[in-house]
Automatic annotation (TrEMBL):
Organism in which the protein naturally occurs: Devosia neptuniae
SUPFAM superfamilies per UniProt: S-adenosyl-L-methionine-dependent methyltransferases (SSF53335), TPR-like (SSF48452)
GO molecular function, one term: methyltransferase activity
Name of the protein: Methyltransferase
Keyword terms of this UniProt record: Methyltransferase, Transferase
Length: 332
């Protein structure tokens, strides 16, 4: 699934959009927005043009203009490919959805797939798979786990997490919304099975059979955590492990949508959601996940376990949550 940025269907509008792009690349976003507005006078039904106008206006500091453009976009984009609702919610002009914006996330990563790894690893200093794997290895040793029988890598992308856990797993499944991502990771031969699906739908009705579930930078696109855990936990064997990352904030809100259109989860609310889902919290650690526009993105790495029996439930005390248990995490 892709977005049709290539043409408005009008030569003059396309030419103005091309000039607008050059102006934006040169840093003159106000002039770029003005040219896009002129282009859209000629082609008012061009959804991609309204997205460009909104983005240029936002970067120019004209938030009201951006919101107006995104409202036009929302009216034209029935499938939600462009994420207009998310953009409006991130600026307080609409209510954020509690679930995944499936069409938007799918389209985003379909376009991102060819340059996904180079952008993350070379430009953004992405560390999550390495950090989660280091945490998993440490707990495997402590728990006496030598190998996993079945692992499910949610939001597997191009297989960065799968590459880390492959040697520890007898049968490895990958699930991702994006067909382009699935195609990229399929070339590597990492997974025994790959499924294109939204993760909650993929797990619905599955038997409790996974002894490891991983989700590296996946739940940041899913909104509220409890519905996700309600799908994940039933698919896990008693004693199975769940390793995942979140962007985090210290406020009271369970979750809020950032301007990046990724969700940040509250520390205390996350801990409570894990306990409510019936999971033992084994590790709950602060980490820098990657860089974004030259600034570090802080988050939490979590390793939880489905109890072997209901009487085995462990909890984190308030002091541990406050400190994030920062020791013991290093990139492998």
């Amino acid at each position: 699934m892709t977005k049709a940025f290539h043409s408005s269907g009008d030569v003059i509008a396309d030419r103005r959009a091309g000039y607008a792009k050059m102006l934006a690349e040169g840093g003159d976003h106000a002039a770029a927005a003005d040219l896009m507005a002129q282009a859209l006078e000629l082609t008012p039904q061009w959804a991609a043009g309204w997205e460009l106008l909104g983005n240029y206006s936002e970067k120019a500091g004209d938030i009201s203009g951006a919101i107006s453009a995104w409202r036009h976009l929302e009216a034209l984009d029935d499938d939600g490919l462009f994420g207009a609702g998310l953009k409006l919610a991130a600026h307080g002009a609409a209510s954020a959805s509690e679930g995944t914006a499936v069409s938007y996330v799918e389209a985003l990563f379909d376009q991102y797939a060819p340059r996904f790894e180079s952008a993350l690893l070379q430009n953004l200093g992405y560390q999550v798979p390495a950090l989660l794997d280091a945490m998993l290895v440490a707990e495997m040793g402590r728990l006496g786990i030598e190998r996993f029988a079945l692992a499910i890598d949610l939001g597997c992308g191009t297989g960065l997490m799968g590459e880390r856990v492959r040697a520890k797993v007898s049968y490895l499944e990958g699930v991702d919304l994006s067909a382009a991502m699935i195609a990229e990771t399929g070339k590597k031969g990492i997974y025994d099975r790959l499924d294109k699906a939204e993760l909650v739908a993929a797990l619905a009705g599955r038997a409790a059979e996974a002894d490891l579930v991983t989700a590296a930078d996946v739940f940041i696109y899913c909104g509220a955590l409890p519905p996700v855990l309600s799908a994940v936990v039933p698919a896990m064997l008693p004693g199975g492990l769940l390793a995942f990352s979140l962007e985090a904030h210290d406020g009271e809100e369970a979750v809020f949508l950032r301007p990046s259109l990724r969700y940040a989860h509250g520390v205390a609310a996350t801990r409570q959601a894990l306990l409510d889902a019936g999971l033992d919290v084994l590790r709950f650690e602060k980490a820098t996940l990657r860089q974004d526009r030259g600034a570090p993105i802080e988050g939490i790495l979590i390793l939880a376990r489905k109890p072997v029996n209901v009487n085995s439930l462990l909890t984190l005390d308030d002091e541990m949550v406050a400190e994030f248990v920062v020791s013991g995490v290093a990139a492998a």
